[in-house]
Predict the 3D structure of the following.
Amino acid sequence: MGFAEQLFALHHELLRATVALIRDCPCGQGCPACVGPEAMAGDGGKKHSLALLELLAG
Ligand SMILES: [Zn+2]
């Protein structure tokens, strides 16, 4: 198994963990604990972050 493959697997796992973290957060629109302060600027920050992450995670 090459280094790139290991890196990809790790990256994938990180993405999945991030999706779970945001989805399981009790907030509605996103908070500093899940999506971070920058994503709080607009409405639906949580929803958009989740959609993007799920796309990346496959
Ligand atoms: Zn949150």
Q: What stands out?
A: The chain has a mean pLDDT of 86. Residues 25, 27, 30-31, 33-34 surround zinc ion (CB under 6 Å).
